[in-house]
Design brief:
binds pyridoxal-5'-phosphate, binds 2-OXO-4-methylpentanoic acid, D-amino Acid Aminotransferase, Chain A, domain 1, 2 domains, alpha+beta
């Protein structure tokens, strides 16, 4: 299917075929020259660590075709640094900043015709992955790795229009990240941990699952796909916890919030405080800003389970909408990028 034939309004956040992937391997400490390939299947040794002990981390960032026709990546240097810290946690080699940016650029250029138009509001999602590939049996970190960047032209996360609110449920019976665990890194294993709980939430009709701190189950950590922020009394409030993924979107929104004259607080948010927010959202690369209109808390008592409902506006709140417009405006070149966040990508030669 060519770019002209794709109807991005029908797309959600999913895998849609593109032209090519880009990859390189680090064997015995030496990185190979990047390969651009239209073969989407890898051949790996069945004893590769990734099949057993999950030495695997990944990133997510988007390339946008701007109103001016130029193609931008949003803060890819931040993704490079986060992947480096995830790899450090797994004690395996990581691509340096230059390699990370080079492979993302090559991947965008190899899939140039799959970058959605500005008018579509869609984007080319890049998924860099880093996996341990050397054969092993004992529990060791991987010494050899493959770093690959793949792409998919995506619509909104839920498939609904941007800023259409969704519901969430507190995860009372499943934790995403242990107190001294890996939640602050973008490891595949963290997502494996959330799959079953997500399936249960989806079966109950919820769009999102909101995890609590694993030690006390008394305060808000983050959604399975994104960070949490709430707005009240002119203040942008988001949890501060080492087991929450340090979101690049949240970091950017905190800057924009200050620019818009909001106070910014990063602190513990106890469950009861949910009652006091005027606006609640999830934020991240995939979800951008997605308003939450209700959070249910199913509390088990001796007498049975009761549901406490925290309700928010059925449409995106005014402050969240301002934050969204400024963020998306910078990403798509309709607002001045005063922070120098975007990196431009040249068309392939
Ligand atoms: N939290 C989780 C668990 C995520 O998967 C993501 C997505 O990457 C985020 C937060 C948001 O991070 P970012 O804004 O860097 O995409
Ligand atoms: C992203 O927002 O880029 C993510 O990686 C979240 C995704 C796993 C839903």
């Amino acid at each position: 299917m060519t770019m002209a034939e794709i109807d991005y309004s029908k797309r959600s956040f999913n895998y849609y075929p593109t032209n090519a992937i880009v990859y390189t391997k680090c064997i015995d400490g030496r990185w190979s020259k990047p390969v651009v390939s239209n073969d989407f299947n890898f051949s790996l040794h069945c004893f590769a660590g990734v099949f057993h002990y999950a030495p695997s981390c990944f990133e997510g960032l988007k390339a946008y075709r701007g109103a001016d026709g130029l193609v931008r990546m949003f803060r890819p240097d931040e993704n490079a640094r986060r992947m480096e810290s995830s790899a450090q946690y797994l004690d395996m080699p990581a691509p340096n900043l230059e390699m990370f940016l080079d492979l993302c650029t090559l991947c965008i250029q190899a899939n140039w015709d799959f970058i959605p138009s500005f008018e579509s509001g869609a984007s080319l999602y890049l998924r860099p992955v880093l996996i341990g590939i050397n054969p092993q049996l004992g529990i060791h970190s991987s010494k050899d790795v493959m770093f690959a960047v793949m792409a998919s032209g995506v619509g909104t996360y839920s498939g609904a229009k941007s800023l259409v609110p969704g519901t969430a449920v507190l995860s009372r019976n499943y934790d995403r990240a242990a107190t001294y665990g890996s939640g602050g890194y973008k490891l595949g294993a963290n997502y494996a941990q959330s799959l079953h709980a997500y399936n249960l939430a989806h079966k109950m009709g919820y769009r999102e699952l909101l995890f609590l701190d694993s030690a006390t189950h008394s305060h808000i950590e983050e959604f399975g796909s994104s960070n949490f922020f709430g707005i009240k009394h002119g203040c942008y409030i988001t949890p501060n916890s080492p087991s929450v993924l340090p979101s690049i979107t949240n970091k950017s929104l905190r800057k924009i919030a200050e620019e818009l004259g909001l106070k910014v607080e990063r602190r513990t948010i106890f469950i009861d405080e949910l009652e006091t927010f005027e606006e609640v959202n999830s934020c991240g690369t995939a979800v951008v800003i997605t308003p939450i209109c209700r959070i249910d808390d199913k509390v088990t008592l001796e007498s049975g389970t009761i549901t406490r409902e925290y309700k928010y506006p059925e449409i995106c709140g005014p402050i969240s909408e301002k934050l969204y417009k400024r963020l998306v405006g910078i990403q798509r070149g309709t607002e001045e990028d005063t922070y120098g966040w975007c990196m431009f990508v040249n068309a392939p030669k």
